[in-house]
Amino acid sequence: MAEWNHSPDVPIAVSPLWQWPPKPLATLKWYADGWFFLTINMGILVLAGLSYLWLSPTFEQSQTLGFSWVALVYLRNLILISLIAGGLHLWFHTYAMQGQEMKYDPRPFPRKGRMFSFDHQSRDNMFWTLASGATIWSGFEVLFWWLLANGHAPTTTFTAAPVWFVAFFLLIPVWESFYFYWIHRLLHTRMFYRFHALHHRNTDVGPWSGLSMHPVEHLFYFGTVVIHLVLPTHPVHLIFHLMFYAILAVTSHTGFEGLWFRNAKRVHLGNFHHQIHHRYFEVNYGNLDVPWDKLFGSFHDGTAEGKAAMKARLAARKRG
Question: Which residues of 229-238 are buried (b: 16+ CB within 10 A; e: fewer)?
Answer without folding.
Answer: eeebbbbbbb
